[in-house]
Design a protein that fits this description.
Length: about 425
C-alpha cells in the first residue's frame, strides 16, 4: 500500500508527484507511456511555453470556462512559483513577448529532463507502460487502482492500494501521446458529470480551402469570428495558413468558440483584416495611389492586380487572394479589410493543443481539487472542465491544479 497514486505523468502529474513527495507522502506515479512528459515535449512547437507572466487580473481573462474556480490553485502555485520551481531544478527561463516564459534553451526536453531528475531524486515509485483502468473505493476508505502493465509482448493485470488518488490523465488531444480520455471513465465511476468535450486551439478549415495558402504567415493582422449573423470575437496578432487550415495564435484563440458553434450547427465565418492599423479611407487612398503608379485601368485590372497587390501583402498571397475574391478597383481596399472565409470544419483531437470540457467543476472543491463525491479522490490538469488560450496558460493550469491536488492529498493522508 502507498499514500498517493497519481495517474498520468504529464505536466500536472509530474508536478503533483514532486510536490506530494516533498510534503512527505509515499507516491506511486503510473504512466501509460515508457517515459514522462510525452505531451510536454511537443508544447510550444517543441520549445515548451512554461507559463505566462501576467498578473491574475489579466491571466484570468484567458481562462475558460470558470476562471474563479482556478483562482485558489493559481494563488497556491502561481506563475511566479512555476518559474521559481523550474529555476530550482535547473531550468533557466526567459521572458518573451506577450509575457510568455520559455526555457532559455528553447527546448522542451530541458523541462522534461529536469522533471525526470527531480522525480528520480525523490522517493517516488514510477511505473511505466501501465494503463490505468478502474479505480474503486473500499469500505474502509482506501482506493484500489487497477491497471494493465505491458512488458514486451506480455500484458498483466495488476492493482495497487492507496489512501488517495490524483487523476491527471489529460484529455483527448494528441492521442499519439497517450491521451485516451481514461480519466473521464474513472470520474464517471464515482458519479461525476463530464461536460461535453471538444477540440480547442486547433485549425479551422475554410470552405474550398486554397492549398496555395499553406505555409503563408501573416503578421499583425486582426481576425474576427462571426457565428450566424452575430459578431463573436476578434483577435489581433499573427496568423498562419497550414495544411490543416487557419492556425497560429490568432486562429487558435478563435477556434474554441468556432468549434463549439460548428458542433451546435451554427454557420461560422472568419474575417481577416490585413491592414488593421490603417483606416479604410486611408487604405483606399493608398490603393488609388498605387493604381495610378501602376497605370491600372478597368481594361487591364485583371492582368495587373497581382502586381498591384505586392505593395500590400506577401507575394505568395497575391494569387490566392486575387483569385479567391471578386476584386475590382473599387472594392480592393475593403476586401483587404474584410477577407472572408466560411468555416466548414476543424482539425480534431489528433492536432488540437487542448481538450475543452471535462470533469464538471461543480463537483470539485476548488480550494483542494478534491472530488465532492469521493473524499481522497483528486483531479488535476486537462481532465477537468477548464482550459486556456494559447500562450502558456494551459501548462500553468496543469502546474497549479497538480500542485494544489498534491498538497491537499498529502494533507488528507496525514489526517
Amino acid at each position: 500500500m502507498t499514500d498517493i497514486v497519481i495517474i498520468g505523468a504529464g505536466a500536472a502529474g509530474c508536478v503533483a508527484a514532486i510536490k506530494a513527495a516533498e510534503a512527505g507522502a509515499r507516491v506511486v506515479l503510473l504512466e501509460k507511456n515508457d517515459k514522462i512528459g510525452r505531451k510536454i515535449m511537443i508544447t510550444g512547437k517543441g520549445r515548451c511555453n512554461i507559463t505566462n507572466a501576467k498578473k491574475w487580473s489579466d491571466f484570468s481573462s484567458h481562462i475558460h470556462t470558470k476562471p474563479a474556480f482556478l483562482k485558489p490553485a493559481f494563488y497556491a502555485f502561481s506563475n511566479i512559483d512555476t518559474v521559481d520551481f523550474f529555476e530550482s531544478i535547473g531550468v533557466e527561463t526567459v521572458l518573451t513577448r506577450d509575457d510568455r516564459v520559455f526555457p532559455k534553451s528553447m527546448n522542451a526536453a530541458t523541462v522534461v529532463d529536469a522533471l525526470a531528475r527531480r522525480i528520480s531524486g525523490l522517493k517516488i515509485k514510477t511505473e511505466f507502460c501501465c494503463d490505468a483502468g478502474r479505480v474503486i473505493k473500499t469500505p474502509d476508505n482506501l482506493f484500489v487502482t487497477e491497471y494493465i502493465r505491458e512488458s514486451g509482448r506480455r500484458l498483466s493485470q495488476e492493482s495497487i492500494i492507496s489512501r488517495a488518488v490524483i487523476v491527471a490523465t489529460g484529455g483527448l488531444s494528441y492521442p499519439a501521446t497517450g491521451s485516451t480520455g481514461a480519466g473521464y471513465d474513472i470520474a464517471r465511476g464515482f458519479g461525476h458529470t463530464i461536460q461535453r468535450t471538444f477540440p480547442s486551439l486547433t485549425a479551422l478549415v475554410p470552405e474550398h480551402y486554397d492549398t496555395r495558402l499553406v505555409g503563408i504567415e501573416l503578421i499583425n493582422v486582426t481576425a474576427s469570428l462571426t457565428v450566424g449573423r452575430d459578431f463573436a470575437a476578434s483577435e489581433f496578432g499573427d496568423l498562419q495558413f497550414t495544411d490543416g487550415g487557419i492556425e497560429g495564435p490568432v486562429g487558435f484563440k478563435l477556434s474554441r468558440k468556432a468549434v463549439w458553434a460548428l458542433l451546435n450547427g451554427d454557420k461560422v465565418s472568419v474575417s481577416i483584416d490585413l491592414k488593421p492599423a490603417v483606416p479604410l479611407e486611408r487604405l483606399r487612398e493608398r490603393v488609388l495611389q498605387a493604381i495610378r503608379q501602376e497605370d491600372v485601368t478597368g481594361a487591364n485590372f485583371d492582368k495587373k492586380v497581382r502586381r498591384l497587390l505586392r505593395g500590400f501583402m506577401p507575394q505568395a498571397l497575391t494569387a490566392p487572394f486575387a483569385e479567391g475574391n471578386r476584386l475590382t478597383m473599387d472594392n480592393l481596399a475593403s476586401v483587404m479589410k474584410d477577407w472572408r472565409f466560411n468555416i466548414t470544419g476543424y482539425v480534431g483531437y489528433r492536432r488540437a493543443v487542448v481538450t475543452a470540457g471535462g470533469v464538471s467543476l461543480d463537483e470539485l472543491v476548488s480550494r483542494t481539487m478534491s472530488s465532492r463525491n469521493a473524499p481522497g479522490l483528486y483531479f488535476a490538469g486537462e481532465v477537468i472542465d477548464i482550459d486556456g488560450d494559447t500562450g502558456g496558460y494551459n501548462l500553468q493550469i496543469a502546474f497549479s491544479t497538480g500542485a494544489l491536488a498534491a498538497r491537499s492529498a498529502a494533507e488528507y493522508c496525514k489526517n
